[in-house]
Amino acid sequence: MKVTVKVQRYNPEKDKKPTWQSFAVECEPGDRVLDLLNHIKWYMDSTLTYRRSCAHGICGSDAMLINGRNRLACKILVKDLTKEGGTITVEPIRGLKVERDLLVDMEPFFDAYRAVMPFFINDDPAPAGERLQSVEDRAIFDEGTKCILCACCTTSCPIFWVNGRYLGPASIVQAHRFIFDSRDKGSDQRLKVLNQNTGVWRCRTAYNCTEACPRDIPITELIEEVKRAVLYQKV
Ligand code: SF4
Ligand code: F3S
Ligand code: FES
């Protein structure tokens, strides 16, 4: 089949603003959008710039706005987007500075991630063996462990678009993962960060984040749990 891939292009060294460029690409219905972008880069225009690594939905590096919705280019199939002769539009994710074409500056996203201390905190003397945890306690924070930090959620949140200082759903999911870990002792510090005016109270339950997540994490639900933890200052 043949489809048109309409890609947003931007080269800060010569363009005043982004423009669109269309490529007619031969493909199979089961190809992924990443295959199409690779075809364009390898055979049609080597200057096309985008980020990717694993190509299997694991590393989280190829989040893009595809046909108006945040998705991983390596997960979404052509047949799920269009038919023979149709068009697929590809733009950079929103709310982060575009460095070139589909490549955005992820630093503000990772600054917010670091701000919630996404690591295990427990200064108690290390036990002789493992820090044991019940199956039930492990299940409480299971959803957050599926996050691959792709930023599909944060960059689909309207609050983040207007206020880039909002920590965003991805960071709150990461905070949830540790706040609700029965072995962790760092909740007080995290809840303080999340109670600031850049924290959880910015969320207006728009649900865009939940709909955008390629790992089907119930993000809004987790945010609501974190809000309750912040409100009562305990888990
Ligand atoms: Fe991506 Fe989902 Fe993690 Fe957000 S919560 S960064 S959408 S995997
Ligand atoms: Fe934004 Fe998700 Fe809340 S889209 S407003 S973080 S529910
Ligand atoms: Fe790794 Fe798509 S390239 S998630």
Automatic annotation (TrEMBL):
Q: Which CDD domains match?
A: fer2
Q: Which reaction does it catalyse?
A: a quinone + succinate = fumarate + a quinol
The protein's required cofactors:
[4Fe-4S] cluster; [2Fe-2S] cluster; [3Fe-4S] cluster
Q: Name one GO molecular function term.
A: metal ion binding
Q: What is its EC number?
A: 1.3.5.1
Cofactor binding mode and count: Binds 1 [4Fe-4S] cluster.
Which Pfam families does the entry mention? Fer2_3 (PF13085), Fer4_10 (PF13237)
* Biological process, per Gene Ontology: respiratory electron transport chain; tricarboxylic acid cycle
Residue ranges of every copy of the 2Fe-2S ferredoxin-type domain listed in the record = 1-94
Q: Which residues form the 4Fe-4S ferredoxin-type domain?
A: 137-158
Functional pathway:
Carbohydrate metabolism; tricarboxylic acid cycle
Key words, A-Z: 2Fe-2S, 3Fe-4S, 4Fe-4S, Iron, Iron-sulfur, Metal-binding, Oxidoreductase, Tricarboxylic acid cycle
Q: What is its EC class?
A: oxidoreductase
Q: Which positions are tagged coiled coil?
A: none
Similarity comment text for this entry: Belongs to the succinate dehydrogenase/fumarate reductase iron-sulfur protein family.
> PANTHER family per the record?
SUCCINATE DEHYDROGENASE [UBIQUINONE] IRON-SULFUR SUBUNIT, MITOCHONDRIAL, SUCCINATE DEHYDROGENASE IRON-SULFUR PROTEIN
Specify the protein name: Succinate dehydrogenase iron-sulfur subunit
Q: Which organism is it from?
A: Deinococcus cellulosilyticus (strain DSM 18568 / NBRC 106333 / KACC 11606 / 5516J-15)
